[in-house]
Write a structure and sequence with these properties.
Blueprint lengths: L7 E4 L4 H4 L12 H9 L3 E5 L7 H4 L8 E3 L2 E2 L13 H18 L5 E5 L12 H15 L2 H8 L23 H27 L7 E3 L11 H4 L6 E3 L2 E2 L18 E2 L2 H15 L3 E3 L21 H11 L2 E4 L27 H16 L7 E2 L3 E5 L1 H9 L14 H15 L4 E5 H6 L2 H7 L2 E4 L7 H12 L3 E4 L22 H4 L1 E2 L3 E11 L7 E7 L2 E2 L3 E6 L8 E8 L2 E6 L1 E3 L1 H11 L9 E2 L3 E8 L2 E8 L5 E4 L9 E3 L4 E8 L6 E2 L10
Parallel strand pairs: 1-2, 2-5, 5-6, 7-10, 8-9, 10-11, 13-14, 13-15, 15-16, 16-23
Antiparallel strand pairs: 3-4, 12-26, 17-20, 18-19, 18-21, 19-24, 21-22, 22-23, 25-28, 26-27, 27-30, 28-29, 30-31
Helix pairs in contact: 7-12, 9-10, 10-11, 13-18, 15-16
């Protein structure tokens, strides 16, 4: 590890039965030589609490400990995270083992922080205790059943209730109002669980030690923006497909939500992690090589891809890169989840490439103090809308059924369009935006993209209008402004409270079973997909129209000046070509506009105490070239296959000249 420039390890999070082999009997000594050895070698330690893998002796105490993914259907034991995290018996024993570990090791000088639990939120819990808690939660929000009946519209289908115990279980629910509240409640359970653990840990930790958890962002009961408010730093586990999936210009389908495919999506994972707290983050797990829990998925990285991907995450705000795991295990479900070392335990190519990245990060580290990634545009992200569209999606899938990934499909289309346009993005949660002063936000982000915002109260929509009034260019997509805070359709012409500022309205809309062309001179090609609003301009300029289909000749995209800014309404889901053209029009100048590069090269940047830091990356098996801005008079940068160069741009305080020292490149082996 020392030879590979490893500076941090994570230990202890998966082995509750080792810590506590019998109830109340703690075996703690085994970690001492690990911590001592790490400290002696200058390696810091993140200590994990072991609560996500329950020991068999605890399971045997009460069958009700098992979480229920559906009412009355207990999770079978033999996996992990099968437990009801609200169960008092689980909490009692979890607290016991946490306190035993912390009392012994919290003051060890090797420990720099704690990870509580691991990838929380594996289940939407349906246990009786959880449902009863949901009823109390609803009573706290609505006060009485008559208010609930009115707010949820339970006259429909004769669903009015007389008392709280008449409310149906979530398994059979078909009400979008019920569903959004159920999902919010589930997210609060996970946030409360992590906050509870963090509170215990802080009784023992000292100010130099941080507390975090590692987030798997697509787990259903996760509201990352709320969750990280209980922690000191955001941490996440970005997994991604490698080989051809990291080649620009090649499309490899995404086959699971917990990993991504595509260079744009890797950057997107970094920007999502930054968005949680609008701050740099830790990568607590990522690919060392193959990922998966069997033999069937083995896409070991091409030479150079490890450093390329690792530095891409650093470029979007990562302050630590940890790999899961050190050595590939010889047993268990993750026998073929490739680690830094193979089954033989002998260093090979993967070890050498991670070591090379470690050396580069060691040298680069001093230049990244206070680093913040650049952003040319802000994209609004809404957890509530994601919850709602998983239940009540606006888009159809390939066979005409409901597309439960509609929110990601819409949001990712705009994010990827920005990437294809060479635009660096800042993802901002809806509540984070709402808390900002409109003028300040418009000054920092002159363009705000709202891909879709169906779930929004009046105050949120008014905040968007104020942003445009203050000078921002507000670009809003389908379904924005149509619903309220509990998914009720608003009783006014869409897009509701945004209509006057946008200068456009509609009452009619249609699914698009096939793409439809777009006419207009502003955008360079592209098509409308999935959805079409029948827009009626009412003061707005018509920027593009539908070329065919049910709304042929009707406005598809409009734009109107409002206050000191502008509101653009995109009444369809643009395909990638149209989306890219829209983003280039909305954000004509970017941080990297003056760079000229081959098609396989990305240029990303950020600012630190040392100056501006540039990451120039070649996502291709072929050499490529990047030309810096001509005003700097620098030679072109020649990149090897799967290569990345990092430049630190500094301004000489005396001459004012710009210099760009290049950290020493480590040759690929």
């Amino acid at each position: 590890m020392v030879e590979a420039s490893f500076s941090v390890i994570r230990v202890g999070e998966s082995v509750w039965a080792t810590w506590e082999p019998e109830p109340g009997v703690y075996h703690l000594d085994w970690l001492q030589p690990v911590l001592d050895g790490a400290h002696a070698r200058g390696i810091s330690v993140v200590l994990g609490t072991p609560t996500y893998a329950v020991p068999p002796w605890l399971r045997a105490m009460d069958p009700d400990l098992a979480g229920e993914a559906a009412t009355g259907v207990r999770q079978p034991w033999g996996w992990r995270q099968e437990v009801d995290i609200t169960h008092p018996l689980f909490r009692q024993h979890a607290e016991g083992v946490i306190r035993a570990i912390l009392a012994r090791y919290a003051k060890h000088p090797a420990i720099i922080g704690y990870q509580v639990d691991n990838e929380p939120g594996a289940l939407l819990l349906h246990n009786q205790r959880v449902f009863e808690g949901f009823l109390r939660w609803l009573e706290g929000r609505y006060g009485d059943v008559e208010t609930l009946n009115r707010e949820w519209g339970l006259t429909f289908w004769s669903q009015r209730i007389r008392s709280w115990d008449e409310l149906w279980r979530p398994d059979g629910n078909h009400s979008p109002q019920y569903q959004i509240e159920w999902r919010r409640y589930q997210a609060e359970l996970v946030t409360d669980f992590i906050a509870w653990q963090a509170g215990i840990v802080r009784e023992y930790s000292d100010p130099r030690q941080f507390v975090t958890t590692c987030i798997s962002y697509e787990r259903k009961p996760i509201n990352d923006e709320k969750l990280v408010q209980e922690l000191d730093v955001t941490a996440g586990n970005p997994y991604y497909m490698m080989q051809e999936a990291l080649r620009i210009g090649v499309e490899v389908p995404r086959t699971a939500l917990w990993w991504t495919s595509g260079v744009w999506a890797l950057y997107g994972q970094g920007d999502r992690m930054f968005s949680s707290a609008q701050a740099p983050f830790l990568v607590t797990e990522t690919n060392a090589q193959s990922i998966g829990q069997s033999h069937w998925q083995h896409h070991t990285p091409y030479p150079g891809q490890i450093a390329l991907a690792g530095l891409a995450l650093v470029a979007r705000g990562a302050r630590m890169i940890e790999y899961w795991q050190w050595q590939t295990p010889h047993y268990g479900i993750e026998t073929y989840w490739g680690g830094v070392l193979p089954h033989s335990g002998q260093p090979g190519r993967i070890y050498r490439e991670i070591a090379e990245l470690g050396h580069r990060l060691r040298d680069l580290g001093p230049h990244l103090e206070g680093f913040t990634p650049d952003a040319d545009v802000a994209l609004l992200y809404s957890i509530d809308n994601k919850y709602s569209f998983e239940f009540y999606p606006p888009l159809a899938d390939a066979v005409g059924g409901p597309d439960r990934t509609s929110y990601l499909r819409i949001f990712d289309r705009y994010y990827r369009a920005a990437f294809e346009a060479g635009i660096q993005s800042r993802i901002v949660h809806a509540d984070q935006f709402r808390q900002r002063d409109a003028a300040d936000f418009a000054a920092e982000f002159p363009t705000l993209i709202v891909p879709t915002l169906y779930i929004a109260d009046d105050g949120m929509l008014d905040a968007l209008v104020r942003y445009a009034e203050a000078g921002g260019h507000l670009v809003i997509g389908i379904r924005t402004g149509y619903g309220d805070h509990i998914a009720r359709a608003r009783p006014e012409r869409a897009p509701g409270r945004l209509a006057a500022a946008a200068g456009v309205w509609y009452d009619e809309y249609s699914t698009l079973d096939a793409p439809v062309g777009i006419d207009g001179t502003t955008f360079d090609g592209g098509q409308a997909e999935g959805w079409a609003d029948a827009l009626i301009a009412d003061g707005a300029d018509v920027v593009a129209t539908y070329s065919s289909g049910i709304y042929a000749g009707r406005p598809a995209i409009t734009s109107r000046e409002h206050g000191a800014g502008r509101v653009t309404y995109v009444g369809t889901l643009p395909d990638l070509a149209l989306g890219t053209s829209i983003l280039r029009w909305a954000v004509p100048m970017t941080s990297a506009s003056e760079w000229r590069t081959d098609a396989s090269v990305t240029v990303t940047s950020g600012t630190s105490a040392a100056g501006r830091v540039w990451f120039i990356s070649n996502w291709s098996p072929d050499p490529a070239t990047a030309h810096p801005p001509q005003r700097r008079g620098e030679e072109p940068i020649v990149l090897e296959p799967w290569d990345v160069t990092v430049l630190v741009e500094q301004r000489d305080p005396e001459s004012g000249a710009v210099s760009t020292p290049i950290p020493e490149r480590v040759e690929q082996s």
